[in-house]
Amino acid sequence: MGAATTRVRGGRRGLPWLVLGLWVVLLAVAGPFAAKLADVQHNRATDYLPASADSTQVARLQDRLPGGQTTELVLVYHRASGLTAADRATAGEQVDALAHRHALTGRTPQGIPSADGTTLMYPVTSNEPGTDEKKRDAFVDDVRSIVHDTGGLSVDVGGPAALATDASGVYKSLGGPLLYTTVAVVAILLILIYRSPLLWLVPLVVAGVADFLAQAAAYTLNQAFGTAVTGASTGMMTILVFGAGTDYALLLVSRYREELRRHERPYDAMRAALRGCGIAVLASSGTVAAGLLCLLAADLNSSRGMGPLGTVGVLCALVAMLTLLPAILVLLGRRLFWPLIPAYGSTPKVRRSLFAAMGSSAGRRPLTVLASGAALLGALALGALNLPGPLKQVDTFVDRPDSVTALQTVAKAFPEQSAQPIEILTPAGRVDAALATIRGMKGVADARQGRTGAGWTEITVTASAPPQSAAETATIKALRHRLDGSRVGGPSAQQLDLADTSARDRLVVVPIVLLSVLLILIVLLRSLVAPLLLVVAVVAVWGAALGLGGLVFEPLFGFHGTDPGLGLLSFVFLVALSVDYGIFLMHRMREESLGGAEPSAAALTALRTTGGVIAAAGLVLAATFAVLTNMGLVQLVELGFVIAVGVLLDTFLVRTYLVTSASVALGRAVWWPGRLSRAPQSAPAERAPEPVG
To answer: Which of 168, 141, 181, 293 is closest to 231 using CA atoms?
Structure first.
């Protein structure tokens, strides 16, 4: 007997070391793959455009033309008081220097003066960078070093390539700076939550390990299935790893702390903790993964690629938090919780908690609380009617770069034509007919034949209306209608396709997400009413968060447009992530009900026991997404704001008040048609006992 006991104890001590050793081997294997993720990350137009759109086909066909992809720039020389002869000479010298250093397409660019004499515009094209983004960025940077302000003459470099380079600079910040900021934010919150000089470091390190593993998995997905890897998708993957992973860690550590008071050995306490909350963590991660994978049904390349990468991030966080984190916690023992060490056989200090007070108010007047909360969410959702219109390229950046300044200057100086070309690829045998049709159309200022290859001919069209105006959009639609067999693309056409495809994706993906999440909740909770309650709650949260965005985006932030993908991405992330907290709460409520507690008591006990950890998890998750509001692209700021606000609404209003009050009001009916709904009611008490923290 003694020998058997010794073997069991030895196995208990050895298992955490074995898990730790396996993780060391896994990271050694994953290392070379993680290091290559940056090499397969691309932020080209085709990585974000809809897969089937005309503009995508144009971008891909242009790669097959002689010289490959064309890099297009616009050099804009401007003096508000009017250009002088010396200004024109300076501009000519700088452009000649540019032509001498780089291989430009065609002859040396010729300046186009504005009617008011304040601006000189030089269109510049080159095939030198090709499809290599790094070469493109280096080319644009070198052009900017050659052409520079002098003596009051301002020079800005604009055009599609300059816009892409400036956007690429922001996406690069989603690597190191985003990671460091996220780590710092999570570290501060964990220190405040745990009030321990050591404990906070363990979940943070494990989350970092999970992020490293996720990078390796993302690279493997790209190589095996061609999954698009963009700056936005890798940034969101990192946020999900740290946000969701820390949430799982908070839940596990909270339960482990409880079990340490009941079990003498940390190994036994951890085993009990995993049994107690493991199902909830698995279910919540499965819900998030299922919701994100629904993005595979999207036609937008950027959204479709974000689904698998986000799923990889969540699953890597799950594996790390259910294996590596428990192993480290067991090996370090109780002393890790110093100075608030949970002693074996002790009881936590009884104190009045905020969530006990919330539960009491929800328990006394559940219908009143429910109606008031629903009215508040509905009122906030009305703010969505105030969301600004579609986001234009000139409004994409939080801080205006040179490329945007150039576009704005050209729009004022050349109101008779667009500064952005409309690119058309037409079958080589129909060029003359296509040119005749184009030049005879209203809204076209100019049309020029370009390269020919692979059975296609390039035609560059200049519209007479400003970029992304209603008139230019009408011209693009007319070109697509009149030119049978041709493909119409270019920057403005790309934005039009993004908006149209985003609307289509919302109609397709949203129902799939709702159905997937609902089915998982039905299986987990063995009920129809409770899952429907949670789904309705998260949809209400999404509407309210969008409404708050409508109230602040333009009036407070000064944003003049809303990204077309905001609705879909915020919906998928909020529904998938917010349901996590509903699972934590409802799973504990079901556990209490199975233990014989009455419906109201089960709901209030679940809130009292999980409210603190849900609040902490919500704060961490909201803070990680709030990091996006410090990025330089408006669409990232908008997405980060809506998700962060939605998580906070869900944490402190919906889960604590509305779901709890609805559960109290419904009683056993919340578990219909499961067996818990058919359990016999006990005699009603005069008043439910008030929970204590």
So the answer is: 168
